[in-house]
Design brief:
Strand content: 5-15%
Shape: globular
Oligomer: single chain
Mean pLDDT: 89
Order of helices and strands: HEHEHHEEEHEHHEHHEHEHEHHH
Distance between the termini: 40 Å
Helix content: 40-55%
Strand order of the largest sheet: 1-2-3-6-7-8-9-10
Largest sheet: 8 strands, parallel, barrel
Low-confidence stretches: 1-31
Number of helices: 14
Radius of gyration: 19 Å
Structural class: alpha/beta
Length: 378
């Protein structure tokens, strides 16, 4: 099975050092979000590149019902190589099929081409080193790289617009790399994003160009956050009230923690790519904690008009067999060096993020999502 890289990204993010809050920063005030419906758009996502047809009947029925009752958005991740496996050869069939399925449900997509993904890059040949890095002698702002990605955007942007897309991301949680060991790559990444934004604006200036960062980077207004604010229309955030030891925060602490992250945007618009509340008992959570977590977060979101988009991560838990496969594919024997309880929390975190159980039955938190979506609908 193909394990999406952003799953590992989320895990690595939570292992970063804690960051203290700082004074608010002004985000982009002129972000072209005219394609995003007015008010608050609440959405969800599936693991990896969304395959709506893979959902069972019960899950399909829940999603259809939620869309009818006000769920309006969806986060969709895809790799550059999935769209262009070879130079100049584009494969859009699966991409368009997913977008068509979302459009049929009335869900507007935020599409993130995850060029940079925490500690990794998702690049096509010949720019990839064959693993998750950049090939020797290649820089992300090389003109050949910029030109090839620009040519991809020439194809992607009209398709995305035709299916109701409102924003295009070009990276997920890349601050974990660029604020850390690979800080020298930051300038190249910023130039890459700037070139992508210029290309998109030349095609249709209504489509927002974005990058998603961790809650830590946003909270502390890291160098990567500040640099990418200058070359994007909006910086998205991934947020989950989870401590560095993979235990969840007390419910009474969630509201203040969330406010500290959102305050970094000042008066600018806020889009949340992943809003996460796991239900794993090993993390100190439960189905009831998950319900209370989302209840607190949506209370805060509804009271914060700057938040325009919030996508619940994720729709459905893994079943036991898939969970075992994910653990093996991501970690292999690497967890053997961790304390047993920590290794269990890592595994459970990955497998119990959904608001729908593996059998398709809704967890208690699902009612919170539905209510919030219904209240936000026009």
């Amino acid at each position: 099975m193909r394990i999406p890289s952003f799953v590992l990204c989320t895990v690595c993010t939570l292992l970063l050092a804690a960051c203290s809050s700082s004074d608010p920063a002004s985000a982009q005030s002129d972000a072209p979000l005219s394609l995003l419906p007015p008010g608050l758009t609440i959405g969800t996502t599936l693991y990896g590149s969304a395959d709506l047809d893979a959902l069972g009947d019960a899950e399909q029925a829940l999603l259809v019902q939620a869309a009818a009752n006000g769920l309006r958005g969806f986060t969709y991740y895809i790799d550059w190589a999935d769209l262009e496996p070879e130079p100049g050869r584009y494969t859009f069939d699966d991409f368009e099929a997913t977008l068509a399925g979302l459009q049929a449900l009335g869900l507007v997509p935020f599409v993130n081409i995850t060029v940079g993904d925490i500690e990794d890059y998702n690049l096509p040949a010949p720019y990839s080193d064959g693993e998750a890095g950049i090939a020797p002698g290649v820089a992300l702002d090389d003109q050949a790289v910029l030109d090839r990605f620009g040519a991809l955007l020439d194809r992607v942007v009209p398709v995305l617009l035709s299916y109701g897309g409102f924003a295009l991301g070009v990276g997920n949680e890349i601050d974990a790399r660029l604020d850390g060991e690979f800080v020298r790559e930051r300038d190249a990444y910023v130039r890459f994003v700037e070139a992508a934004r210029e290309r998109v604006r030349a095609l249709d200036e209504r489509l927002a160009v974005a990058v998603t960062l961790t809650g830590s980077a946003v909270r502390q207004r890291s160098a990567t956050f500040r640099a990418l604010q200058q070359v994007t229309d909006v910086v998205l955030v991934n947020y989950g009230p989870i401590r560095l030891d993979f235990l969840v925060r007390d419910v009474e602490d969630i509201r203040q923690d969330f406010r500290e992250v959102i305050s970094a945007y000042g008066t600018g618009p806020v889009l949340i790519q992943e809003l996460t509340c796991p239900s794993a008992p090993s993390m100190g959570a439960s189905a009831e904690w998950q319900h209370a977590c989302f209840d607190a977060l949506f209370d805060e979101i509804k009271a914060t008009p700057e938040v325009r988009f919030a996508s619940v991560f994720t729709f459905q838990d893994f079943d036991a067999a898939t969970c075992d496969a994910v653990r093996e594919a991501l970690f292999g024997d690497e967890l053997n060096g961790l304390p047993t309880e920590m290794a269990q929390r890592l595994t459970d975190y990955l497998c119990m993020l959904g608001v729908v159980a593996p059998d398709g039955s809704p967890k208690p938190a699902w009612a919170v999502i539905e209510e919030a979506a219904s209240e936000s609908a026009p």
